[in-house]
Request: fold
Amino acid sequence: MDINREWLEDLDLMEVHGVIAACPCTEFAGSGSQWWNEKEMKNPALRQSAIDLVHHTMAIIEFLKPDFWTIENPIGRLQTQTDLPAPGILFHPHHFGNPWLKRTQLFGQFNNDLPVVNVEPTEGSWAKKLLGVDPEQKAMRSITPYGMALSYFMANHQHGLEYQYQDIYDQMVRDGQMPGDIPVPPAAPVATPRPNDRYEFPDTQG
Reply:
């Protein structure tokens, strides 16, 4: 499905609070840098297609004008290839209670004062443990860490949703997914700048 300007206009969205995107990292992640030159020689269109998708994502964000927006990607060359602004956060999952390593960047305009509960990364690096050539393991590598997702929500949620994240957090503690000592901040006021109109939707046929 093509998400273009006409499709978004037909939705007639009155207000969009936030947009969170995780563009495929295959052509950007530093963990695959040893194959960049070889892939470029074989099929340079792969990299350009990945860049175009990021720019398309930015065109959607600019159209929706959300209160906050974020594009997630592992450490690598996303910024240099797509001209995104510098990331607002660089983190490992263990900074938010999940005990493994995976250097990840969050680009965008959002409240980056996330509550932190740092634990020892006893599980080591998921990038080294889970193989990108195995579809199931590749999918596991792509999962957003529970703790980081919760901390992001706690920092960027609208006022009045406190009861929702408290219920979610309590359940995660009971399930053993999180330690029970994340501080709960107040809701962040919506005061982030809107993206400037720099990106265009790609031409579509038919």
